[in-house]
């Protein structure tokens, strides 16, 4: 049982159960099931969320999700707290642990969320760092499983930067034994240590994990095509980066190589006209808003799992999701 969620492979052991729990709980909640509507594992608990960068989906999905699980969400914006000005990450972790039942943290340097976790006595969830975005990957794979419940022979493909979102997506696909291809321009490959972890998972499941510099080759016969912005938060100074991504836009021409029933995914926010065209974003096969909604359900499952008060497994037993 993981103590914290810094990268998605921290919950490798129970990942499939976490996703199935989220899928079942979402269905029950939406059908007004009384048990789901009265499931409050975070009762009497405040959950604090620190943001060093802007957020729409992460902030709203955590605030609403914490509330639905009976907890009290506390959003802590960087400019309003002492962290990074007169207080260290470690001291902040020690203080917040005295008040909160869990902490979520969106930061620049991944080392900061790791340090927060190392000094926190309550679960810490990485709400995006420069290296990982595990909450996004949980929502992404939940969405993939909803749309492809029979995932045999499924191929997921990434086109774009070797960034935080790709890192957790490739780990998550490896963890579920889903074939994964990723295309990136030379010089923008994903981090070698993450690729190695993802390949180990894929090898264990006998699934494929393959990198390409040619987007058309990666996309060939893919069922899911995923992209993200070419310039991430914190990289705004890298003015020349955009031009290195010529040919990596997800458009209808590129999708001619995909399976005819392709689905398009994007973590959002999307820069329409850069990494993806309007035509693809607004296509009937685009499932980007399902993904956005699933941030909340996946995070509810992750929070109930990480607070480890028995409620998650009791609810799982009741839903018939093997724990
Ligand atoms: N996908 C995602 O993390 O979105 P926000 O930056 O709006 O939270
Ligand atoms: N790669 C993007 C993801 C935003 C949700 C970033 O880090 O800015």
Strands of the largest sheet, in order across it? 7-6-5-8-9
Q: Please state the overall shape, judged from the principal axes of the Cα atoms.
A: globular
Helix/strand-derived category reads alpha/beta
Would you list the SSEs in sequence order as H and E? HHEHEHEHEHEHEHEHEHEHHH
CATH class of the largest domain: Alpha Beta
Number of domains: 2
CATH topology of the largest domain: Rossmann fold
Number of helices: 13
Major sheet description: 5 strands, parallel
Name the bound molecules: phosphoric acid mono(formamide)ester, norvaline
Strand percentage lies at 5-15%
Quick one: how many beta strands?
9
Poorly predicted runs are none
Examine the secondary-structure arrangement and name the CATH architecture of the largest domain.
3-Layer(aba) Sandwich
What is the residue-mean pLDDT, rounded to a whole number? 96
Question: What does this protein structure show overall?
Answer:
It is a single chain. This protein has about 325 residues and is α/β, with parallel strands linked by helices. It folds into 2 domains: about 10-135 and about 290-320, Aspartate/ornithine carbamoyltransferase (Rossmann fold, 3-Layer(aba) Sandwich), CATH 3.40.50.1370; about 135-290, Aspartate/ornithine carbamoyltransferase (Rossmann fold). Helix content is about 40%, strand content about 15%. The chain has 13 helices and 9 strands. The protein has helices at about 15-30, 35, 55-70, 90-95, 110-120, 135-145, 165-175, 190-205, 215-220, 250-255, 280, 290-305, 310-320; strands at about 45-50, 70-75, 100-105, 125, 155-160, 180-185, 210, 225, 265. The strands form 2 sheets. A 5-stranded parallel β-sheet has the order 7-6-5-8-9. Strands 2-1-3-4 form a 4-stranded parallel β-sheet, sandwiched between helices. Helix 8 links the parallel strand 6 and strand 7 (about 210). The site of norvaline (NVA) has 9 residues, from helix 7.
